[in-house]
Amino acid sequence: MRPSPLCLVRVLPRSEVTNALSKLKPLPEPKRSDVPKLNIFQMLQKRKEAMGESYPPNLRIELALSKHDFRGVPLETKRQLREMIKEK
């Protein structure tokens, strides 16, 4: 059996509503579009430069290659490059 809409409605006293409104947090400031946003690669590069020699040598930071990077390259050369890029 489903409850009727009248059972689901609850009338609140005005004092409870005003108290609830006073507890609301203010909206966050909107993000500025004129400030350049760093991507993950740039953030990691900055961290690596800041840490200097203490940066772990086993962490590599490389940009991902896409199809557009291989545009104009002969097909056989593309295959060889893809094989070299793949991690084993």
TrEMBL record:
Say which domain of life the source belongs to.
Eukaryota
- The protein here is known as Uncharacterized protein
